[in-house]
Structures are given as structure tokens and as C-alpha cells.
């Protein structure tokens, strides 16, 4: 189960695919960062911003996590307003565990 709370029914196919990919990363921390960012921002992003988000998502999760946390210097190619928005976005880490993962069976 994912942490998706946004219904993808009203999203175009590209945005549905991006939302799914944001919540299905290789590292759970990146699921939470990108997934919640996508839920909050995806519907209002322009096509150019979607291109930029997809380019960021193409990077390795371990690298992204280090860049977002600031433990590695950010490459110049990601010194963009989109990456700044992702870094500035504060995910709600206080959501109950079950909202992200479902209840244990």
C-alpha cells in the first residue's frame, strides 16, 4: 500500500504516471518527499515543470536523498526553481504509519 491520498481519477495520464512513480521510489524516504510533493503540487505544474520534475525523478534515489538533505553538494544542473520547491516542501512525517503503509495483517 502507498501513502497516496490524492485521487488520480481527475489527472491526465502523464500526471497519473508521475504521481505513481513519486510514491513508488526505491527508498521510502524519497517516497514520502516526492509523493507528498506530487500530491500537493502536481495538478498545478506546467508542462515545462513536469519535464523538470521527471528529469529529477530519473536520478538515483540515494543521490536525490543526499541532495535533498544537503549532505552532498547539489549539482549545477539541479540548481533550479523546481528542485528548490522540492527541498523547501516539508512533508508531513507526522501522518500515522497506517496512512502510509496500511494496517499490518
Summary keywords:
105 residues, mainly alpha, single chain, globular, DNA polymerase, domain 1, 0% strand
Draw up the topology in text.
Blueprint (H helix, E strand, L loop, with lengths): L12 H11 L4 H14 L5 H11 L3 H9 L11 H8 L8 H5 L4
Give the structure's gist in a few sentences.
The chain has 105 residues and is mainly alpha-helical. The protein has helices spanning 13-23, 28-41, 47-57, 61-69, 81-88, 97-101.
Descriptive notes:
The chain is mainly alpha-helical and 105 residues long. The chain has a single domain, classed as DNA polymerase, domain 1 (Orthogonal Bundle). 55% of the residues lie in helices and 0% in strands. The protein has six helices and no strands. Helix 1 runs antiparallel to helix 2. The two termini are 12 Å apart. The mean pLDDT is 85.
